[in-house]
Amino acid sequence: MQRVLRWFFIAGVLALSLPFLAGISPEVNAQSSGSIVGEVKYNGTPPAPKVIKVNKDNQACGNEKTSEELVVGANKGIQWAVVSVVGAKGPAPKPAQKPTLDQKGCHFQPHVLLAPVGVGIDILNSDGILHNIHTFSKANPSFNKAQPKFKKVITEKFDKPEVVKIRCDAHSWMSGWVVVQEHPFYAVSDANGSFKIDNVPPGKHKLELWHETLGKVAKDVEVKAGAPTKVTFELTKK
Ligand SMILES: [Cu+2]
């Protein structure tokens, strides 16, 4: 009995000390790295969102869709812009949950999905109709798969970093993006145009913003340990 107790004690001490030995304590990480917090703003008067008439499967899809190729909020924040630290090194994150791309109400949700390299993404069909997912990739093999209503999940993975356009061959208005990176230092802007990149190594970095219709913008930043670096991107239609 005593031997068993001693074994439990040793195992307990080992379990508690392992994260410190491996240097993965979150506190250590937060102090030795910084974060980049920012906003993506539309400069000027944003164009009215495009409205697309739906000519098929109206019961599931509705009668019209608002295009998400340029989403500008009330405060002029631009959604769906991806900001990345260029040349960053770091392991691709292992997400707790698989990145998920849903086809719901005949549009891709989210419109821009972030996915680490080599991690499968679940492509769901929440609509009771046929969708056909089609990717337009170059670095990764492209795929084109029918997803009938009974096929609720297809899992696909991307092994190379790439911005991949996706469409549905059954519904011409459905379009979205999967942005695949090999490091964790990137983020997508939310409905207010805000984004945050955590655990960035201190030092000078180049940031690159990508937006599907407004293009690419680069910016230099300096990240300090334990503090957020604030960045604002102002974009306009060319
Ligand atoms: Cu579809």
UniProtKB/TrEMBL annotation:
Residues 1-22 form the signal peptide. Gene3D superfamilies: Carboxypeptidase-like, regulatory domain (2.60.40.1120), Cupredoxins - blue copper proteins (2.60.40.420). GO terms for molecular function: carbohydrate binding. Residues 185-230 form the Rhamnogalacturonan lyase domain. Keywords: Signal. This is Rhamnogalacturonan lyase domain-containing protein. It comes from Tectimicrobiota bacterium.
